[in-house]
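Lab meeting notes turned into a lecture example. A postdoc, R.K., suggested we walk through two folding results consecutively so the class can see how the record format repeats. The first protein's sequence and C-alpha coordinates come next.
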Amino acid sequence: MASDTNLLKATTDKVVLIGDVGVGKTSIFTRFKSNEFDESSKGHNPKEDKFTKMWKPSGGSEVSITLFDTAGIERHMSTIPPTYFRSAKAVILVYSITDAETFDSLSNWIENAVSAMGVGTGGLVKVLVGNKVDLDSDRQVDRNRAEEFAKNVDINSKFVLETSAKTNKGIDDLFNLVAMEIAPSVKQSPKGGAPKTEKSKCCSQT
Protein backbone atom coordinates (compact mmCIF):
# COMPACT_ATOMS: atom_id res chain seq x y z
CA MET A 1 0.00 0.00 0.00
CA ALA A 2 1.28 3.45 -0.86
CA SER A 3 1.91 6.04 1.79
CA ASP A 4 0.22 9.42 1.34
CA THR A 5 3.32 11.28 2.45
CA ASN A 6 5.50 12.81 -0.24
CA LEU A 7 8.52 13.58 1.96
CA LEU A 8 11.92 12.47 0.69
CA LYS A 9 14.31 10.31 2.66
CA ALA A 10 18.03 11.02 2.65
CA THR A 11 18.32 8.41 -0.08
CA THR A 12 15.86 7.28 -2.71
CA ASP A 13 15.82 4.35 -5.09
CA LYS A 14 15.58 5.13 -8.79
CA VAL A 15 13.12 3.07 -10.84
CA VAL A 16 12.69 3.62 -14.58
CA LEU A 17 9.85 2.80 -16.97
CA ILE A 18 10.86 1.76 -20.49
CA GLY A 19 9.06 0.45 -23.56
CA ASP A 20 7.55 1.63 -26.82
CA VAL A 21 5.37 4.69 -27.12
CA GLY A 22 1.68 4.04 -26.49
CA VAL A 23 2.03 1.05 -24.14
CA GLY A 24 0.78 3.01 -21.12
CA LYS A 25 3.97 3.93 -19.27
CA THR A 26 2.76 7.45 -18.51
CA SER A 27 -0.57 6.06 -17.32
CA ILE A 28 1.29 3.73 -14.93
CA PHE A 29 3.39 6.71 -13.84
CA THR A 30 0.23 8.74 -13.16
CA ARG A 31 -1.25 5.88 -11.14
CA PHE A 32 1.92 5.81 -9.03
CA LYS A 33 1.94 9.58 -8.64
CA SER A 34 -1.73 10.36 -7.90
CA ASN A 35 -3.71 7.11 -8.31
CA GLU A 36 -5.55 8.57 -11.27
CA PHE A 37 -6.04 7.64 -14.91
CA ASP A 38 -5.69 10.53 -17.30
CA GLU A 39 -6.98 9.97 -20.84
CA SER A 40 -5.28 13.22 -21.90
CA SER A 41 -1.84 11.76 -21.15
CA LYS A 42 -1.88 10.27 -24.65
CA GLY A 43 -1.26 13.73 -26.05
CA HIS A 44 1.36 14.99 -23.62
CA ASN A 45 4.41 16.95 -24.71
CA PRO A 46 7.48 14.70 -24.90
CA LYS A 47 9.68 15.27 -21.86
CA GLU A 48 11.30 13.14 -19.21
CA ASP A 49 9.35 13.15 -15.95
CA LYS A 50 9.99 11.85 -12.43
CA PHE A 51 8.18 11.67 -9.11
CA THR A 52 9.30 10.56 -5.65
CA LYS A 53 6.95 8.84 -3.24
CA MET A 54 7.16 6.82 -0.05
CA TRP A 55 5.86 3.30 -0.65
CA LYS A 56 5.26 0.72 2.07
CA PRO A 57 4.25 -2.74 0.92
CA SER A 58 2.32 -4.97 3.30
CA GLY A 59 4.82 -6.71 5.56
CA GLY A 60 7.78 -4.81 4.12
CA SER A 61 9.91 -1.79 4.87
CA GLU A 62 8.93 1.65 3.64
CA VAL A 63 11.09 2.79 0.75
CA SER A 64 11.46 6.05 -1.13
CA ILE A 65 10.95 5.37 -4.84
CA THR A 66 11.74 7.90 -7.54
CA LEU A 67 9.91 6.74 -10.65
CA PHE A 68 11.15 8.00 -14.02
CA ASP A 69 8.98 8.13 -17.15
CA THR A 70 10.26 8.69 -20.68
CA ALA A 71 6.98 10.56 -21.35
CA GLY A 72 7.15 10.49 -25.12
CA ILE A 73 10.86 10.98 -25.77
CA GLU A 74 11.07 7.27 -26.62
CA ARG A 75 9.52 7.83 -30.05
CA HIS A 76 13.13 7.45 -31.16
CA MET A 77 14.93 5.06 -28.83
CA SER A 78 18.28 6.67 -29.57
CA THR A 79 17.08 10.01 -28.19
CA ILE A 80 16.86 8.71 -24.62
CA PRO A 81 20.02 9.91 -22.83
CA PRO A 82 22.16 7.30 -21.00
CA THR A 83 21.63 9.27 -17.80
CA TYR A 84 17.99 8.16 -17.83
CA PHE A 85 19.12 4.61 -17.01
CA ARG A 86 22.16 5.22 -14.83
CA SER A 87 21.94 4.49 -11.10
CA ALA A 88 18.58 2.76 -11.51
CA LYS A 89 17.82 0.05 -8.96
CA ALA A 90 14.94 -1.35 -11.02
CA VAL A 91 13.72 -1.30 -14.61
CA ILE A 92 10.05 -1.81 -15.46
CA LEU A 93 9.73 -3.10 -19.03
CA VAL A 94 6.26 -2.30 -20.33
CA TYR A 95 4.49 -3.64 -23.41
CA SER A 96 0.86 -3.67 -24.50
CA ILE A 97 -0.82 -7.07 -24.54
CA THR A 98 -2.80 -5.76 -27.54
CA ASP A 99 0.27 -5.00 -29.67
CA ALA A 100 2.79 -7.74 -30.40
CA GLU A 101 5.25 -5.26 -31.91
CA THR A 102 5.68 -3.54 -28.55
CA PHE A 103 6.51 -6.93 -27.05
CA ASP A 104 8.98 -7.81 -29.80
CA SER A 105 10.94 -4.60 -29.20
CA LEU A 106 11.66 -5.41 -25.53
CA SER A 107 14.97 -7.11 -26.33
CA ASN A 108 16.28 -3.84 -27.79
CA TRP A 109 15.08 -1.93 -24.73
CA ILE A 110 16.94 -4.29 -22.39
CA GLU A 111 20.08 -4.08 -24.52
CA ASN A 112 19.98 -0.27 -24.51
CA ALA A 113 19.40 -0.11 -20.76
CA VAL A 114 22.27 -2.46 -19.93
CA SER A 115 24.58 -0.66 -22.38
CA ALA A 116 23.78 2.72 -20.83
CA MET A 117 24.34 1.46 -17.29
CA GLY A 118 27.67 -0.14 -18.10
CA VAL A 119 29.12 -2.33 -15.36
CA GLY A 120 27.29 -3.19 -12.18
CA THR A 121 23.93 -4.35 -13.54
CA GLY A 122 24.07 -7.72 -11.80
CA GLY A 123 21.78 -6.56 -8.99
CA LEU A 124 19.37 -4.72 -11.26
CA VAL A 125 15.72 -5.62 -10.65
CA LYS A 126 13.91 -6.23 -13.95
CA VAL A 127 10.11 -6.43 -14.05
CA LEU A 128 8.16 -7.38 -17.17
CA VAL A 129 4.71 -5.77 -17.35
CA GLY A 130 1.99 -6.49 -19.90
CA ASN A 131 -0.31 -3.47 -19.69
CA LYS A 132 -3.86 -2.91 -20.96
CA VAL A 133 -5.43 -6.14 -19.66
CA ASP A 134 -8.74 -4.27 -19.67
CA LEU A 135 -8.58 -4.88 -23.44
CA ASP A 136 -8.13 -8.64 -23.11
CA SER A 137 -10.46 -9.35 -26.03
CA ASP A 138 -7.85 -7.67 -28.28
CA ARG A 139 -4.92 -9.60 -26.79
CA GLN A 140 -1.99 -10.41 -29.09
CA VAL A 141 0.55 -11.53 -26.47
CA ASP A 142 -0.38 -14.36 -24.13
CA ARG A 143 1.04 -14.92 -20.69
CA ASN A 144 3.02 -18.01 -21.69
CA ARG A 145 4.88 -16.08 -24.36
CA ALA A 146 5.78 -13.38 -21.83
CA GLU A 147 7.06 -15.95 -19.34
CA GLU A 148 9.17 -17.64 -22.01
CA PHE A 149 10.73 -14.30 -22.98
CA ALA A 150 11.41 -13.52 -19.32
CA LYS A 151 13.20 -16.83 -18.90
CA ASN A 152 15.43 -16.07 -21.90
CA VAL A 153 16.51 -12.69 -20.48
CA ASP A 154 16.98 -13.90 -16.89
CA ILE A 155 13.83 -12.39 -15.39
CA ASN A 156 12.33 -14.50 -12.63
CA SER A 157 8.72 -15.56 -13.28
CA LYS A 158 7.73 -13.70 -10.09
CA PHE A 159 8.58 -10.51 -11.95
CA VAL A 160 6.20 -11.15 -14.86
CA LEU A 161 2.98 -9.19 -14.30
CA GLU A 162 -0.05 -7.95 -16.17
CA THR A 163 -1.72 -4.64 -15.36
CA SER A 164 -4.34 -2.15 -16.40
CA ALA A 165 -3.46 1.44 -15.63
CA LYS A 166 -7.00 2.35 -16.66
CA THR A 167 -8.74 0.14 -14.08
CA ASN A 168 -5.80 0.09 -11.62
CA LYS A 169 -5.57 -3.70 -11.83
CA GLY A 170 -2.14 -4.97 -10.76
CA ILE A 171 -0.60 -1.52 -10.19
CA ASP A 172 -0.24 -1.87 -6.42
CA ASP A 173 1.11 -5.41 -6.95
CA LEU A 174 3.74 -3.98 -9.30
CA PHE A 175 5.08 -1.37 -6.91
CA ASN A 176 4.75 -3.63 -3.87
CA LEU A 177 6.98 -6.11 -5.68
CA VAL A 178 9.53 -3.46 -6.63
CA ALA A 179 9.54 -1.96 -3.11
CA MET A 180 9.98 -5.36 -1.43
CA GLU A 181 12.95 -6.13 -3.64
CA ILE A 182 14.84 -2.85 -3.27
CA ALA A 183 13.88 -1.96 0.34
CA PRO A 184 16.56 -2.52 3.00
CA SER A 185 15.88 -5.18 5.60
CA VAL A 186 17.26 -5.20 9.13
CA LYS A 187 19.17 -8.13 10.59
CA GLN A 188 20.66 -8.48 14.06
CA SER A 189 24.44 -8.72 14.29
CA PRO A 190 25.62 -12.29 15.05
CA LYS A 191 27.48 -10.96 18.11
CA GLY A 192 24.50 -9.07 19.43
CA GLY A 193 25.71 -5.73 18.13
CA ALA A 194 23.83 -3.08 16.21
CA PRO A 195 21.43 -4.26 13.48
CA LYS A 196 22.78 -4.48 9.97
CA THR A 197 20.94 -3.13 6.95
CA GLU A 198 20.82 -5.31 3.87
CA LYS A 199 18.94 -5.39 0.62
CA SER A 200 15.83 -7.54 0.70
CA LYS A 201 16.23 -11.07 -0.70
CA CYS A 202 12.50 -11.71 -0.97
CA CYS A 203 12.35 -12.01 -4.72
CA SER A 204 15.63 -13.26 -6.16
CA GLN A 205 16.20 -12.58 -9.84
CA THR A 206 18.03 -15.87 -10.32
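The second example is placed directly after the first for contrast:
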Amino acid sequence: MTKQFVYGDYEKQYGILREYAMELQSKNLGTTVKIDVETEPKLCDDLDLNSSSNFTFISDQQRRAEQRFCLRHVYDNMKLKHKGNELREAIWCCGKVYNLTKFNRVMEKLKKLNPEAHEWLSKILAKHWARSRFSGRALTDSLTNNLCEVFNSKLDEARDMPIITCLEFIREYLTKRIVNVHKVLEKYKGSLSTTATTILENNKTVENKMRVLFSGADKYQVTGLWMEQYVVNLKERSCTCRKWDITGIPCQHAIVAMYDKMQNGSECGDPEAWVGRPKKKRKRATDEPTQSTNLSRKYLTVTCSKCHNKGHNARTCKGQGGPSEARKGSGQKKGEYVVETITFDRYFG
Protein backbone atom coordinates (compact mmCIF):
# COMPACT_ATOMS: atom_id res chain seq x y z
CA MET A 1 0.00 0.00 0.00
CA THR A 2 2.87 2.39 0.78
CA LYS A 3 4.45 1.81 -2.63
CA GLN A 4 1.10 2.32 -4.31
CA PHE A 5 0.56 5.53 -2.34
CA VAL A 6 3.96 6.92 -3.37
CA TYR A 7 4.12 5.83 -7.03
CA GLY A 8 0.44 5.47 -7.91
CA ASP A 9 -1.84 2.64 -9.01
CA TYR A 10 -0.73 0.54 -12.00
CA GLU A 11 -4.20 -0.14 -13.38
CA LYS A 12 -5.55 3.39 -12.90
CA GLN A 13 -2.55 4.98 -14.59
CA TYR A 14 -3.10 2.89 -17.72
CA GLY A 15 -6.71 4.13 -17.69
CA ILE A 16 -5.63 7.79 -17.86
CA LEU A 17 -2.71 7.27 -20.23
CA ARG A 18 -4.45 9.02 -23.12
CA GLU A 19 -5.25 12.04 -20.91
CA TYR A 20 -1.57 12.15 -19.96
CA ALA A 21 -0.59 12.15 -23.64
CA MET A 22 -3.00 15.03 -24.35
CA GLU A 23 -1.55 16.99 -21.42
CA LEU A 24 1.97 16.57 -22.80
CA GLN A 25 0.88 17.83 -26.21
CA SER A 26 -0.95 20.84 -24.76
CA LYS A 27 1.94 21.93 -22.51
CA ASN A 28 4.75 21.17 -24.98
CA LEU A 29 3.80 22.37 -28.44
CA GLY A 30 5.20 20.21 -31.22
CA THR A 31 5.36 17.09 -29.05
CA THR A 32 4.50 13.83 -30.80
CA VAL A 33 2.85 11.15 -28.66
CA LYS A 34 1.79 7.77 -30.02
CA ILE A 35 -0.03 5.08 -28.05
CA ASP A 36 -0.19 1.64 -29.61
CA VAL A 37 -2.20 -1.19 -28.07
CA GLU A 38 -1.78 -4.81 -29.14
CA THR A 39 -4.27 -7.26 -27.74
CA GLU A 40 -3.01 -10.25 -29.74
CA PRO A 41 0.73 -9.97 -30.52
CA LYS A 42 1.49 -12.00 -33.65
CA LEU A 43 5.06 -12.71 -32.59
CA CYS A 44 3.91 -14.40 -29.40
CA ASP A 45 1.51 -16.54 -31.40
CA ASP A 46 4.24 -17.55 -33.84
CA LEU A 47 6.55 -18.63 -31.00
CA ASP A 48 3.76 -20.20 -28.99
CA LEU A 49 4.40 -17.95 -25.97
CA ASN A 50 1.98 -17.18 -23.16
CA SER A 51 1.81 -14.74 -20.24
CA SER A 52 4.07 -16.93 -18.12
CA SER A 53 6.89 -17.13 -20.70
CA ASN A 54 10.00 -15.23 -19.62
CA PHE A 55 10.99 -13.55 -22.90
CA THR A 56 11.91 -9.95 -23.65
CA PHE A 57 12.08 -8.60 -27.20
CA ILE A 58 13.97 -5.47 -28.19
CA SER A 59 13.27 -4.24 -31.74
CA ASP A 60 15.39 -1.68 -33.59
CA GLN A 61 13.97 -2.30 -37.06
CA GLN A 62 13.38 1.33 -38.06
CA ARG A 63 13.25 1.00 -41.83
CA ARG A 64 13.70 4.72 -42.53
CA ALA A 65 16.79 5.01 -40.31
CA GLU A 66 20.28 3.68 -40.72
CA GLN A 67 20.75 0.56 -38.65
CA ARG A 68 23.98 -0.20 -36.81
CA PHE A 69 24.95 -3.04 -34.53
CA CYS A 70 27.05 -2.66 -31.42
CA LEU A 71 30.39 -4.28 -32.30
CA ARG A 72 30.95 -5.25 -28.69
CA HIS A 73 27.72 -7.26 -28.70
CA VAL A 74 28.64 -8.75 -32.09
CA TYR A 75 31.89 -10.05 -30.62
CA ASP A 76 30.13 -11.27 -27.47
CA ASN A 77 27.93 -13.44 -29.68
CA MET A 78 30.91 -14.64 -31.68
CA LYS A 79 33.00 -15.64 -28.69
CA LEU A 80 30.40 -18.23 -27.72
CA LYS A 81 31.99 -20.33 -30.48
CA HIS A 82 35.23 -18.52 -31.31
CA LYS A 83 37.42 -17.15 -28.53
CA GLY A 84 40.84 -15.58 -28.14
CA ASN A 85 42.40 -12.17 -27.56
CA GLU A 86 44.03 -12.18 -30.98
CA LEU A 87 40.68 -12.86 -32.60
CA ARG A 88 39.04 -10.08 -30.60
CA GLU A 89 41.67 -7.56 -31.71
CA ALA A 90 41.26 -8.66 -35.33
CA ILE A 91 37.50 -8.14 -35.23
CA TRP A 92 37.82 -4.69 -33.70
CA CYS A 93 40.39 -3.80 -36.32
CA CYS A 94 37.91 -4.78 -39.04
CA GLY A 95 35.32 -2.47 -37.54
CA LYS A 96 37.60 0.50 -36.87
CA VAL A 97 39.22 1.02 -40.29
CA TYR A 98 37.54 3.70 -42.44
CA ASN A 99 38.84 2.79 -45.88
CA LEU A 100 37.28 -0.04 -47.86
CA THR A 101 40.65 -1.23 -49.18
CA LYS A 102 42.02 -1.51 -45.65
CA PHE A 103 38.83 -3.26 -44.55
CA ASN A 104 39.25 -5.96 -47.18
CA ARG A 105 42.89 -6.35 -46.15
CA VAL A 106 42.15 -6.89 -42.46
CA MET A 107 39.26 -9.21 -43.29
CA GLU A 108 41.73 -11.38 -45.22
CA LYS A 109 43.97 -11.46 -42.14
CA LEU A 110 40.99 -12.55 -40.07
CA LYS A 111 40.27 -15.30 -42.59
CA LYS A 112 43.82 -16.62 -42.27
CA LEU A 113 43.64 -16.39 -38.48
CA ASN A 114 40.31 -18.20 -38.13
CA PRO A 115 38.35 -19.19 -41.27
CA GLU A 116 35.28 -20.21 -39.27
CA ALA A 117 35.15 -16.90 -37.41
CA HIS A 118 35.55 -15.06 -40.72
CA GLU A 119 32.67 -17.00 -42.21
CA TRP A 120 30.51 -16.28 -39.14
CA LEU A 121 31.24 -12.54 -39.27
CA SER A 122 30.74 -12.33 -43.05
CA LYS A 123 27.12 -13.38 -42.63
CA ILE A 124 26.43 -10.04 -40.89
CA LEU A 125 26.21 -7.16 -43.35
CA ALA A 126 29.28 -4.98 -42.86
CA LYS A 127 27.24 -1.78 -43.25
CA HIS A 128 25.81 -2.45 -39.78
CA TRP A 129 29.08 -2.76 -37.86
CA ALA A 130 32.10 -1.56 -39.96
CA ARG A 131 33.07 2.10 -40.37
CA SER A 132 34.24 1.50 -43.93
CA ARG A 133 30.66 0.65 -44.92
CA PHE A 134 28.83 3.37 -42.96
CA SER A 135 26.82 5.69 -45.18
CA GLY A 136 27.79 8.90 -43.40
CA ARG A 137 24.20 10.00 -42.81
CA ALA A 138 24.59 10.04 -39.04
CA LEU A 139 28.00 11.79 -39.04
CA THR A 140 29.36 9.62 -36.25
CA ASP A 141 31.85 6.75 -36.26
CA SER A 142 30.62 5.17 -33.05
CA LEU A 143 30.85 1.37 -33.04
CA THR A 144 29.11 0.72 -29.72
CA ASN A 145 25.80 1.61 -28.15
CA ASN A 146 27.35 3.02 -24.98
CA LEU A 147 24.96 5.97 -25.11
CA CYS A 148 22.00 3.59 -24.90
CA GLU A 149 23.65 1.54 -22.17
CA VAL A 150 24.24 4.63 -20.02
CA PHE A 151 20.66 5.77 -20.57
CA ASN A 152 19.24 2.35 -19.72
CA SER A 153 21.31 2.12 -16.53
CA LYS A 154 19.75 5.39 -15.33
CA LEU A 155 16.26 4.00 -15.82
CA ASP A 156 16.63 0.95 -13.58
CA GLU A 157 14.94 2.80 -10.76
CA ALA A 158 11.85 3.49 -12.87
CA ARG A 159 11.33 0.12 -14.54
CA ASP A 160 8.95 -1.25 -11.88
CA MET A 161 6.96 1.97 -11.50
CA PRO A 162 3.45 2.48 -12.87
CA ILE A 163 3.43 3.63 -16.50
CA ILE A 164 2.85 7.38 -15.98
CA THR A 165 5.20 7.55 -13.00
CA CYS A 166 7.83 5.82 -15.14
CA LEU A 167 7.32 8.25 -18.03
CA GLU A 168 7.53 11.23 -15.68
CA PHE A 169 10.80 9.88 -14.27
CA ILE A 170 12.23 9.66 -17.81
CA ARG A 171 10.99 13.14 -18.73
CA GLU A 172 12.48 14.76 -15.63
CA TYR A 173 15.79 12.93 -16.06
CA LEU A 174 16.11 14.05 -19.68
CA THR A 175 15.17 17.62 -18.75
CA LYS A 176 17.93 17.76 -16.13
CA ARG A 177 20.44 16.26 -18.54
CA ILE A 178 19.61 18.73 -21.31
CA VAL A 179 19.92 21.66 -18.88
CA ASN A 180 23.32 20.39 -17.70
CA VAL A 181 24.51 20.15 -21.31
CA HIS A 182 23.38 23.73 -21.96
CA LYS A 183 25.33 24.91 -18.90
CA VAL A 184 28.48 23.28 -20.23
CA LEU A 185 27.97 24.83 -23.67
CA GLU A 186 27.48 28.28 -22.16
CA LYS A 187 30.91 28.09 -20.53
CA TYR A 188 32.61 26.96 -23.73
CA LYS A 189 33.84 29.80 -25.94
CA GLY A 190 34.65 27.86 -29.11
CA SER A 191 32.35 27.33 -32.08
CA LEU A 192 32.74 23.52 -31.85
CA SER A 193 32.37 20.96 -29.10
CA THR A 194 35.36 19.91 -27.03
CA THR A 195 35.59 16.55 -28.79
CA ALA A 196 35.36 18.02 -32.29
CA THR A 197 37.95 20.68 -31.43
CA THR A 198 40.39 18.05 -30.13
CA ILE A 199 40.02 15.90 -33.24
CA LEU A 200 40.44 18.88 -35.54
CA GLU A 201 43.54 20.14 -33.73
CA ASN A 202 45.12 16.69 -33.92
CA ASN A 203 44.44 16.57 -37.65
CA LYS A 204 46.19 19.91 -38.12
CA THR A 205 49.48 18.70 -36.61
CA VAL A 206 50.46 16.50 -39.57
CA GLU A 207 49.84 18.96 -42.40
CA ASN A 208 53.58 19.61 -42.97
CA LYS A 209 54.27 15.91 -43.44
CA MET A 210 52.15 15.51 -46.58
CA ARG A 211 52.46 16.54 -50.22
CA VAL A 212 49.58 18.10 -52.13
CA LEU A 213 48.87 18.14 -55.86
CA PHE A 214 45.97 20.23 -57.18
CA SER A 215 43.99 18.29 -59.79
CA GLY A 216 41.40 20.92 -60.73
CA ALA A 217 37.71 21.34 -59.87
CA ASP A 218 38.46 21.53 -56.12
CA LYS A 219 40.11 18.10 -56.19
CA TYR A 220 43.51 17.40 -54.62
CA GLN A 221 45.84 14.42 -54.53
CA VAL A 222 47.39 14.10 -51.07
CA THR A 223 50.39 11.83 -50.48
CA GLY A 224 51.14 10.74 -46.93
CA LEU A 225 54.37 9.94 -45.08
CA TRP A 226 54.24 6.28 -46.17
CA MET A 227 53.50 7.24 -49.80
CA GLU A 228 49.82 6.35 -49.51
CA GLN A 229 47.64 8.52 -51.72
CA TYR A 230 44.18 9.96 -51.15
CA VAL A 231 41.84 12.14 -53.20
CA VAL A 232 40.18 15.10 -51.48
CA ASN A 233 37.14 16.74 -53.04
CA LEU A 234 36.48 20.02 -51.25
CA LYS A 235 33.32 20.66 -53.23
CA GLU A 236 31.80 17.36 -52.16
CA ARG A 237 33.38 17.50 -48.67
CA SER A 238 34.83 14.05 -49.06
CA CYS A 239 38.12 12.17 -48.93
CA THR A 240 38.90 8.63 -50.04
CA CYS A 241 40.10 7.86 -46.51
CA ARG A 242 36.38 8.35 -45.62
CA LYS A 243 37.00 9.89 -42.18
CA TRP A 244 35.60 13.23 -43.31
CA ASP A 245 32.61 11.54 -44.94
CA ILE A 246 31.69 9.56 -41.82
CA THR A 247 32.39 12.03 -39.01
CA GLY A 248 31.78 15.39 -40.69
CA ILE A 249 35.14 16.63 -39.33
CA PRO A 250 37.82 17.45 -41.95
CA CYS A 251 40.52 14.77 -41.96
CA GLN A 252 44.26 15.37 -42.17
CA HIS A 253 44.22 15.19 -45.96
CA ALA A 254 41.34 17.64 -46.26
CA ILE A 255 43.06 20.20 -44.02
CA VAL A 256 46.24 19.97 -46.09
CA ALA A 257 44.18 20.60 -49.24
CA MET A 258 42.51 23.62 -47.61
CA TYR A 259 45.87 25.14 -46.66
CA ASP A 260 47.17 24.59 -50.18
CA LYS A 261 44.14 26.34 -51.63
CA MET A 262 44.60 29.34 -49.33
CA GLN A 263 48.33 29.55 -50.07
CA ASN A 264 47.52 29.83 -53.77
CA GLY A 265 45.32 32.87 -53.25
CA SER A 266 41.87 31.26 -53.17
CA GLU A 267 39.32 31.82 -50.43
CA CYS A 268 38.72 28.70 -48.39
CA GLY A 269 38.00 29.59 -44.78
CA ASP A 270 39.25 27.99 -41.60
CA PRO A 271 38.88 24.20 -41.15
CA GLU A 272 36.42 24.89 -38.32
CA ALA A 273 33.97 26.28 -40.88
CA TRP A 274 33.98 22.95 -42.74
CA VAL A 275 32.78 20.87 -39.79
CA GLY A 276 29.33 19.34 -40.14
CA ARG A 277 26.94 18.97 -43.04
CA PRO A 278 27.22 21.33 -46.02
CA LYS A 279 24.52 23.93 -46.53
CA LYS A 280 21.78 22.73 -48.84
CA LYS A 281 21.49 26.11 -50.51
CA ARG A 282 24.36 28.33 -51.52
CA LYS A 283 24.56 31.86 -50.18
CA ARG A 284 23.18 34.32 -52.71
CA ALA A 285 24.52 37.74 -53.50
CA THR A 286 22.59 40.71 -52.10
CA ASP A 287 21.51 41.87 -55.56
CA GLU A 288 20.72 38.40 -56.93
CA PRO A 289 17.03 37.57 -57.47
CA THR A 290 15.68 34.47 -55.77
CA GLN A 291 14.25 31.65 -57.83
CA SER A 292 10.64 31.54 -56.79
CA THR A 293 7.24 31.01 -58.35
CA ASN A 294 6.21 34.38 -56.87
CA LEU A 295 7.51 37.28 -58.97
CA SER A 296 9.59 39.83 -57.09
CA ARG A 297 8.89 43.50 -57.80
CA LYS A 298 12.55 44.40 -57.31
CA TYR A 299 13.47 44.08 -60.99
CA LEU A 300 10.06 44.95 -62.48
CA THR A 301 8.92 48.23 -64.01
CA VAL A 302 5.46 49.35 -62.93
CA THR A 303 3.17 51.17 -65.40
CA CYS A 304 0.65 53.64 -64.04
CA SER A 305 -2.96 52.91 -65.04
CA LYS A 306 -3.82 56.65 -64.97
CA CYS A 307 -1.18 58.29 -67.12
CA HIS A 308 0.24 55.10 -68.67
CA ASN A 309 3.80 56.16 -67.79
CA LYS A 310 6.34 53.94 -66.09
CA GLY A 311 7.99 54.26 -62.71
CA HIS A 312 4.94 54.73 -60.47
CA ASN A 313 1.42 53.39 -59.91
CA ALA A 314 -2.05 54.92 -59.84
CA ARG A 315 -2.00 55.46 -56.08
CA THR A 316 1.12 57.61 -56.18
CA CYS A 317 0.35 59.26 -59.51
CA LYS A 318 0.46 63.06 -59.49
CA GLY A 319 0.10 63.51 -63.22
CA GLN A 320 3.83 63.39 -63.79
CA GLY A 321 4.81 62.75 -67.39
CA GLY A 322 1.23 62.62 -68.80
CA PRO A 323 -2.38 63.70 -68.39
CA SER A 324 -4.38 62.16 -65.61
CA GLU A 325 -7.40 62.25 -67.93
CA ALA A 326 -6.06 59.13 -69.58
CA ARG A 327 -8.20 57.22 -67.16
CA LYS A 328 -11.32 58.78 -68.62
CA GLY A 329 -13.08 56.84 -71.27
CA SER A 330 -11.49 53.62 -70.17
CA GLY A 331 -14.88 52.15 -69.51
CA GLN A 332 -14.28 51.64 -65.80
CA LYS A 333 -17.44 51.51 -63.76
CA LYS A 334 -17.94 52.51 -60.17
CA GLY A 335 -16.83 49.83 -57.77
CA GLU A 336 -14.39 48.25 -60.19
CA TYR A 337 -10.67 47.93 -59.45
CA VAL A 338 -7.96 49.13 -61.79
CA VAL A 339 -5.34 46.47 -62.44
CA GLU A 340 -1.85 47.91 -62.84
CA THR A 341 0.27 46.61 -65.67
CA ILE A 342 3.71 45.19 -64.83
CA THR A 343 6.26 44.89 -67.58
CA PHE A 344 9.41 42.80 -67.57
CA ASP A 345 11.80 45.23 -69.17
CA ARG A 346 14.89 43.85 -67.39
CA TYR A 347 14.30 40.32 -68.61
CA PHE A 348 12.61 40.74 -71.97
CA GLY A 349 13.21 44.39 -72.93
